[in-house]
Amino acid sequence: MAKLRLVLACTIFILLSNPITLSLGKNSAKNGFLLHEERWVKMFTKWYMGNYPFYEYVGNFSLCESVQQTKDGGYLVLVESYKAGGDLTGILLYKLDKYGKKEWVKRINALPNLKPWDEYLWIWHIEKTMDDCYIIAGAARVYSGDRKVDLWLIKVDENGNEIWNKTLGGKKKEVAHCIQSTDDGGYVAAGCTFEDSGFFTDGWIIKIDEHGEEVWNKSINVEGAVWTEFQTVCQAADESYMVGGRYFTSEDGGTWGACLYKLDKNGTEKWSRTFVKSGEYISIIGMIPDENGGCTVVGRREGVAWIEKIDSNGNTVWSRVFNRLIDPPWSAFISVRQTADGGYIALGWCNRGWLLNLLHHPMHIDFCSDTWLVKMDKEGKVEWRRVFPIVDMLSFPADIRITMDGGYIIVGSVDSYQYPGKWEGILIKTDSKGRTNFLQLKLSGLIHWLFIQLYHPSPYSSIKLCKENTSARNSTSISANFDSCIIYHPWSRFDFWI
């Protein structure tokens, strides 16, 4: 009875703590919103909660990694489905219409020689190709005695039908974190390559032709680093390739820095640059090219979100590190897109401090990870910000796309603070000002939290898990925890416990 009263009180309090914005109907024009700008939320959930537009029943726990808008205005969404014990049950490709309603779902099948790597077949990214199809990239363990891991590529048509399905890689393990289409109809992917020796890794970039065959691949390691990992890649305007990520050196107790490389079309290094400062954690997580052969990168430094514009020679044009006193005291950007006005829309996570955490996460005010959306002009000056708190849940945004109606589609996952591993994928559709259906957002999170509280008691918490991973990553036994700490997507992309 006490828990029921708490849930009821939290429901009223949370709904009143934000302005409730109802979903736009087809004939609505209130509050100055454009008629064509859709706003909705959809959660891919294990729980059957009735026929609500903001739930998509998957039947298992799930992760949403990537989304692409289709030419009819709908969306293709990658969803990884898991059992409670962590076993993979399927990699699903959902087709949604522009209102978020399911049109069809298809399972992506692995090749006969592919088996889950530590129970996972990793899928990271979906990208539209030059011929109006879609390329999906990830990693899989090829069934063999040495537990080999390769880059896994699947090409599908607009209806989700498989065109080809193959793996690429060498003698080591290769994992792709991102893939992009290139002007020649092929692709470029980036990630890391490593052996079973543990923590020692190299950054890895591979060029692929339109048929999925390797053109060239290159391993890169920052000098003096024991671990280099690429998290983002793009093709520059001069047909070269820009690749960025992070690295770790063991000197002075351990230093985390960001790295950026520019390669010519044959994979030969043109220049490289590192971003490092003693006592700081710095990482490049997202990147987009500009029209002059340079790029704009986003990530984290000084404990907060960071964006920097780089010219074609690797020099800084401008840089912005967000102010802890004005913006959230802990934050990061993980994805960025260029808007029609020449500015930027950046997606990330933030922790807004204990007072605001108390309003939206009353059971866990010490640390909260909320999805954060920031619109900036072409010089990096903030025009507006939006935060999407989900009731007492950790939020892990993964990617953002600009939609045909001028708004944005955000994809990611949420997890329980008290009962880690109960992942649910989520999509958030906003208008051009980053406003979404907050009623759906609040209700979806609240009902999800209630189901977990009632049916999955556990003595552990996600915050405890973060602290345990922190100790593992900073200890001499870090190599023993490499697979779980580095490769597992929700933790590896954000590193908010460092």
Question: Descriptors for this entry?
Answer:
498 residues, disordered C terminus, 6 helices, 5-stranded antiparallel sheet
Summarize the structure in words.
The chain is mostly beta strands. Helix content is 13%, strand content 45%. It has helices spanning 2-17, 354-360, 438-455, 462-473, 482-487, 489-492; strands at residues 40-45, 55-57, 61-69, 75-82, 88-96, 102-108, 114-115, 122-128, 134-142, 149-156, 162-168, 173-181, 187-194, 201-208, 214-220, 227-235, 241-249, 255-263, 269-275, 283-289, 295-301, 304-310, 316-321, 330-338, 344-351, 370-376, 382-388, 393-402, 408-416, 424-430. It is globular and about 55 Å long.
What ranges have pLDDT less than 50 throughout 5 or more consecutive residues?
12-35, 457-498
Number of strands: 30
Helicity, in percent?
10-25%
Query: What is the first-to-last residue Cα distance?
Result: 39 Å
Percentage beta strand? over 45%
Average the pLDDT over all residues and give the rounded result: 78
Radius of gyration equals 21 Å
Strand order of the largest sheet: 2-1-30-29-28
The number of helical runs is: 6
Backbone shape: globular
Note the main sheet.
5 strands, mixed
Output the structural class: mainly beta
Oligomer: single chain
